[in-house]
Specification:
162 residues, alpha+beta, OB fold (Dihydrolipoamide Acetyltransferase, E2P), 3 helices, 29% strand
Length: 162
């Protein structure tokens, strides 16, 4: 029985170290801005293509950051640790598995909600007649009929007043 307690304690401490590492990685993964006013460092000193047009419509949308998988992993590890403290013997194993599953689901939800922010889908009729839609953070207000400019560089575009 002493060896079983030692093994469980060893597993718990290993899982705790992994959890701390996962939380550290997750805290460093901030979502990049999709604002029309924010430029990435790689955009500086780079020629950008400018087009002009007129706003056709504006629609409020939700921008959701892409999952990096750390939320479910961290939640699963933490849930597994918490669940392993339930019961004894086989009960600990069952508790660890259930805790890991529930923690993983909770971690996924938290990660999804943390990366969600409001945005705008701005449909623009370019001066050449092409109709395009752009999605970005709603830090600047646009209305149908507004003249705008679209700046494109490196595959990224932004709409601003022009």
């Amino acid at each position: 029985m002493n060896t079983q307690k030692f093994t469980v304690a060893r597993i718990k401490s290993s899982v705790l170290v992994i959890s701390m590492a996962a939380v550290t990685v997750l805290s460093g993964c901030a979502a990049q801005s999709t604002s029309g006013s924010v430029y990435r460092e790689s955009d500086t000193r780079r020629a950008q293509i400018i087009e002009q047009g007129t706003v056709e419509s504006v629609r409020i949308v939700t921008i959701q950051a892409e999952s990096n998988g750390v939320g479910p992993l961290a939640g699963g590890v933490i849930g597994g640790i918490a669940g392993s403290g339930v019961g004894g013997g086989r009960g600990q194993a069952v508790g660890a598995v259930l805790g890991a599953v529930l923690g993983g689901v909770a971690g996924q939800r938290i990660e999804e909600n943390a990366g969600t922010r409001p945005g705008l889908e701005i449909t623009v009729k370019l001066d050449n007649g092409t109709l395009r839609a752009y999605v970005q953070e709603g830090d600047e207000q646009f209305r149908a009929g507004d003249r705008v400019r679209i700046t494109t560089s490196g595959g990224y575009s932004r709409v601003s007043r022009g």
